[in-house]
Amino acid sequence: MAQILAPSTQMQMRITKASSSTSPLTSKMWSSIVLKQSKRVKGSSKYKVLTVKSEHGTINRLEDLLNLDITPFTDKIIAEYIWIGGTGIDVRSKSRTISKPVEHPSELPKWNYDGSSTGQAPGEDSEVILYPQAIFKDPFRGGNNILVMCDSYTPAGEPIPTNKRHRAAEIFSNPKVVSEVPWFGIEQEYTLLQPNVKWPLGWPVGAYPGPQGPYYCAAGADKSFGRDISDAHYKACLYAGINISGTNGEVMPGQWEYQVGPSVGIEAGDHIWMSRYLLERITEQAGVVLTLDPKPIEGDWNGAGCHTNFSTKTMREDGGYEAIKKAILNLSLRHKDHISAYGEGNERRLTGKHETASIDSFSWGVANRGCSIRVGRDTEKSGKGYLEDRRPASNMDPYIVTSLLAETTLLWAPTLEAEALAAQKLALNV
After folding, report:
1. What number of other Cβ atoms are within 10 A of residue 131's Cβ?
2. Which of 160, 150, 164 is nearest to 93 (CA)?
3. 46 pLDDT more than 50
4. Phi, psi of 231 (to 5 degrees)
5. Most confident of 14-23, 52-61, 218-227
6. Where are the alpha helices (DSSP H) in 154-294?
7. Superfamily for 67-162?
8. Where is the GS catalytic domain (predicted)?
């Protein structure tokens, strides 16, 4: 642990007095605070914190350093190594200096971390190894600095139990899956909470706003809460190279959604996890709490899902509707397997209400948001396209969900008897 040495004087905080020629203090100026001695202590060091004046007041020197472009002065870059922690939903990260800019994960060294501090290794054998897998531009540091999506292994090279990327990569590298070029479009919903009270942003503390209806895709200070966070996240994702395709305010006030895709194979999971990391960092800076809980508020309020749109090359070509129906048939036969892997607490969300199907039964329909699997009107009309799996919770692991969809629809084969019974039950003529 690094030790910080500082003079032992008693301190007080004071806002610098603006001159009469300057503008009134803005919120940015209020963040510019100067520490000054209030009393001299015998034997203590003397020091002075310098401030810089501009025509608008005091410049925050810490902010200047955070925004400092180091590119003209060094070839070295900062790489933020990011991985998934022991809960399977938390993201962790730490930084290291790399001697020069890189373009591919293979140019980066492996690294390690203390797995006993993340719930991923015992204290007596705590070293976990990070393997760099995907690179993104760093919107926080800028320049040539990067964010690195990693997965975790034992020193012997075995994936640790929480490393779901490894198995997903195996499925997506299967020749049969590769030939079908699986596309994913993932709709990530999330809820913003007020700090300390953990109550949705924009809601009166300990009370409720008006009922759902006016908030979805709405504008206005009484209907839209957290737009600045959503917009900041949107731009950060575009800067980083994440394939974000849109965003919108959701049905429950204080809840938002963004969409990532279409992405091919393992890329979908990498991009969702990195987008979640960016969202965690942005809400951290805004002093707002992010939750991916699938039902953050009990009662007559929409939950938060991670609807996953999926298609294969065959589904997207003429006559692909038959392949879509066959995929739905397979999904119906493995409903319990998918539900068990689609996120924690999902039973609180999948109740058959608030645009969900019951967790206990499988259903499908055209343009029906109350079904397990929804097929769009355009897909039905054109006879090709994609399906939407509406079952995944907002806290699902995208590596698990995307690879399971590919496995069930492309690699797994039911018995003819089971297939016939399921087709009859679902009224599917396959």
Report:
1. 19
2. 150
3. no
4. -70, -40
5. 218-227
6. 165-172, 175-179, 227-240, 266-286
7. Glutamine synthetase, N-terminal domain (3.10.20.70)
8. 161-430
Best-predicted range by mean pLDDT (3-7, 60-64, 122-126, 225-229): 225-229
pLDDT tens digits, one per residue of 185-236: 999 999 999 999 999 999 999 899 999 999 999 999 999 999 999 999 999 9
In order of 124, 209, 219, the CA distances from 230 in angstroms are 42, 21, 13
Greatest distance between any 2 Cα atoms in the chain: 90
Q: DSSP of 325-352, one letter per residue?
A: HHHHHHHHHTHHHHHHTS-TTGGGT-BS
In the chain, CATH 3.10.20.70 covers 67-162
Single-letter code of the amino acid located at 171: I
Cα–Cα distance, 226 to 214 (Å, whole number): 15
Contacts of 397 (CB under 8 A, 6+ apart): 84, 88, 89, 164, 269, 341, 343
pLDDT digits (tens, 9 = 90+) for 91-117: 999 999 999 999 999 999 999 999 999
* Residue 295: Cβ within 10 Å count: 22
Q: How many residues does the chain have?
A: 430
Q: Is 21 exposed, middle or buried (0-12, 13-18, 19+ CB in 10 A)?
A: exposed
CB 423 within 8 A of CB 429: yes
How far apart (Å, rounded) are the C-alpha atoms in residues 183 and 169?
15
Distances 90 to 85, 168, 270, 354, 395 between C-alpha atoms, Å: 5, 19, 14, 27, 10
Looking at the DSSP assignment, which residues form a beta bridge with residue 36?
Answer: 12
Cα separation of 297 and 304, whole Å? 10
Angle of CA points 314, 340, 126, to nearest 5°: 105
Say how many C-beta atoms besides its own lie within 10 A of residue 180's C-beta: 20
Q: Give span(s): CATH 3.30.590.10, the chain.
A: 173-426
Could you tell me which CATH class the domain 173-426 is placed in? alpha beta
At 227, is the secondary structure helix, strand, or coil? helix
Number of alpha carbons in the 13 Å side-chain half-sphere of residue 29:
16
What gap in Å lies between CA 79 and CA 94, rounded to an integer? 8
Return the residue matching tokens 């401030």. Answer: 51
- Residue 142's CB is within 10 A of a number of other CB atoms, namely 15
- Tell me the whole-structure pTM to 2 decimals: 0.85
